[in-house]
Amino acid sequence: xxxxxxxxxxxxxxxxxxxxxxxxxxxxxxxxxxxxxxxxxxxxxxxxxxxxxxxxxxxxxxxxxxxxxxxxxxxx
Length: 76
Description:
Radius of gyration: 21 Å
Distance between the termini: 27 Å
Oligomer: single chain
Helix content: 40-55%
């Protein structure tokens, strides 16, 4: 069974090629940012609210009619 990649897995694939010094530097910066967030009692923004209202008035049929697909999809 194939497991979906998590965001941390994707980052690890990118970060794996870094040197040990660069990895330690990143760890220290992450630690500082966590401490800073806790000290300021910051919370992560809710990303869903950022897009609220952007799609108002648009339904799936409108999207289908205005989309361009450059390939033919065979029907079953």
